Structures
1.
Amino acid sequence: MRSLHASVLAAAALVAAPPASAAGVQLNVSGEARQEINTPQFQDRYQSLASYLGASLGTDVKLAIGRDLSRELQKMRAGLYEVLVGPAHVIGAAMRYGYEPVARFAGEERAVFVASKASGVRSFEEARGKRLALPPTDSLATYLARGELNAKGVVIKEYFGEVKEHRYHEVALLAVEFGQADVAVADERLAQEWIVRNGGQIILQTRATPGIGVAVNAKLDKPVKERIRTAFLAPNPKVIAAAPLTGLDIARVEPIGAKEYEYVSTLGYFTPRQLPGATLVTAEEVAALMKKGATLYDTRSAEEYGAKHIRGARHLPYGEKSRKEVGFDAKQDHFDLAQAAADRNAALIFACNGPECWKSYKASTAAIAAGYRQVYWFRGGFPEWSLKGLPTESAPAVAARQ
């Protein structure tokens, strides 16, 4: 990452508002995994944005362009940046660390799986066992692709015969072009351009996400946040004239809120929407099953169970150390399934803390693997049960053993 100081001397004089902060403002731009990120044009584009923002706020703006998303997320958790600019999955993740989305630039993004003409692959089903080329893990396209497959319960490393990650979208597509892979994941625009040159076809696409977005640290003073919002959504023509933007159309920037990031912020973070071998059930269905004698197992910690749990639920904690993903390594976890009913025909229900909690998913997977024939996964878990106003109880003695 390279840190740049935006010059705002003459332009800042045009702004009547007082300085945002004596220390200035930290602006972070997370670049996508495309070759353009290393070009002077990319640097100039966001240097001009820093200058414009500094002029609008009346303070110095320090620009940092990040290429390592994992490192940037650590800094977001610590609240080190006042303003973030980046693709949808960056803004979606930042929302969990105390940032508020305020604006988006024009355009949408989606990931696609594109198959080469030579591969003969015409559908996603025909891609099973084939070689897959991916951009880096922290690219939006790979995030969306893995997240969608994860939501479908598809284990990517098992579905494809070979999976390789490449530095950029363009390199993943080149791997297909040169016969080193049969299918590649890339953003839709690059994939369509590649198909025009090389043939082939798109065999699967994800839902669309917002284009480049802007988020602010929620801890900023309200007047500062409002000036940042105004700079993007109601730009001052005099400031634009003094600090012109390069390659960014501020006139087409639109307001945006958390709802527009709901899809991308939960994709790959929430559990799948299905589990082969198990029946997904609602709170009402769980209540009916329990009346018929099914056992509900609460897989949360002893502290959570002891504080409050579904009335009648048994505590069967899932000790989770594996990754939160389909195809997780169960050997890393601890789960004493022997404490459940011995009868493989017994009806077992597993629950935890809702769609973002993987413990009940993993417990259900373990029960299916062990040969249980009636496995019910209550994906909505305790939060859904509580929202429906269904009966709960506590177990202080269990919590005390934690």
2.
Amino acid sequence: MTRTQEFEELRPLLFSIAYRILGSVSEAEDAVQETWLRYEASPTRPTSTKAFLSAAVTRISIDVLRSARVRREKYVGQWLPEPLLTDPYQDPARSAELADSVSMAALLLLERLSPLERAVFVLREVFGFGFPEVASAVGRSEAACRQLAVRARRHMEAGRPRFEADRKEREELAGRFFDAFTEGDIDGLRGLLAADVQMVGDGGGKAPQLPRDIIGAQKVARVLAAIAPLFVRIDLTFAPHEVNGQPGAIFRDRDGKVLSTWTLDILDGRIQTIRSVINPDKLGHVGPVADAWAIAREANQARRPTD
């Protein structure tokens, strides 16, 4: 097998490691590309290609995360991970577990960890690497990695997100939610939302966004019921689509360009959180991006009463 073939075989794993460490599709793709360059430039073939490449992409991701954390401290409004439509790493036996680990709720929880804790947790708890491999990847002793893993696991378990266990039930509830949203059915929406549901938006200062989180079933239902007919008037469309391993949707303008993605956290038969990513910098990998400001202006015009 050639180096290229070996690398391509492991690319899904490498991307999945990098994305969980970074919470960014574009940065994860860059980290994987840099890993290839290092592998290609290596004068010798490693004993274990998987160990070599996993260590390389982890170290690169840690370095990128350290600088990214500084930028995120200055981020305008709520920071959310870049939406991931499909996780390329497939393991049918652990598909539900892997989907939960890539959810926006889990990635936001990982943001609370230090870069080293985050990397150790991802390698050990998500992908099942042994401590010798983890230690080699992060450049620390096995004993230190065990301590990092304990701290990371404690933080994650304290706030670990829970989701509807039955995938079919989760998808059916999401379907009812989007039907009620399309119809502007405020009572139907309210009946699907948890009492303390939150609606969160990420525009990053580069697109119209919610001035603050909307909290509570009544408030969220009213907002959703109000914007649904407005979306119709300005020819916005949406299609349900799994986003970050959870039910969601992709919203597009009349030309088919991507306006935003929504993800739904569902537990106990109710929607707990609705997260919307509208920052254009985070949507380019989904498809051509719509002009959110132009759409906002058109929406404002559509709101005004006609003579």
3.
Amino acid sequence: MTLPIRLSRPGVRRVAVLGAGSWGTTFAKVLADGGSDVALWARRPELAREISQSKRNSDYLPGINLPRNLWASSFIPDVLDGAEIVFISVPSQSLRENLRIVRDLIPSNAIVVSLMKGVEKGTGDRMSEVILQELEMLPDLVAVASGPNLALEIAKEQPTAAVVSSTSLETATIVAATATNPYFRSFVNTDVIGTEFGGVLKNLIAVAIGIVDGVGYGENTKASIITRGLVEMTDFAVAYGGLAQTLSGLAGLGDLIATCESSLSRNNTAGRLLGQGYSFTDVVKQMNQTAEGLSSVAPILELAAARGVDMPIVEQVAQVLAGTMNPRDIAPHLTTEEDTPAILVE
């Protein structure tokens, strides 16, 4: 069940955000605008200086003014010093190595929150699972945040909402209260699996939508794939212990709509390039930020096979990525096991 937070204004919290890309910087802004003292880790010293001195991140959020109570550093110990909550926004495939660098620097009683939407290649682990393994933390001190959250729109303070999930309702409530301000509302639930997989799986459907968009197919095709995609997402999440109702909420359907329909979506953009005939290698070269969906296709299909979940949309995306299917032939919403009409429960 997703519960709204009724906020009395929280006291000033010292929070840290690791990762100064578009989403990490945007979420740092959300937290600062909610009243927290925010330290942001930027890998490049010149970017950290720009954020701290000019209150801008021209590489990832051009034209956006950042709050005065947000500062950045490339020196991780300074960023993590005294942090009550640590938010992590790095590429999913580099999370484990980054955690090994910071594990002895994170305060022992800090809450750690994943802002990432991916699964690890090789292990198939969700980001919260990687955090638990590498930091050896209690599950009740780990949370994930997800929802229809396109960074640039939020940075422009366009109203939106998100879900914070933890096995501890108290932890989720603390994080959600910290990540709430006049333009950004956080809700809570305790379905970490459903919330996390919703954020991962919608990226794969968004790549498919981008492909059909790039090919030139219209709204009927896209609506069909989005609708059937939600069924795939729900079947998968439930097979791994998530709740179906989570996938019909902000972390599932809400995120799916935003990511599939917006040109701001990296995964949609990557799919559109594939649909226009670019190879996977060319797409990666053209993208100046990580499209998590491209990295998650293979591990998600492995996890689906392990639980017997049928995912024709993701399978066809994998074929396009591998170059074994012409993008014009992608039509997973038409796929059935037989030529007889499919009986679908939606």
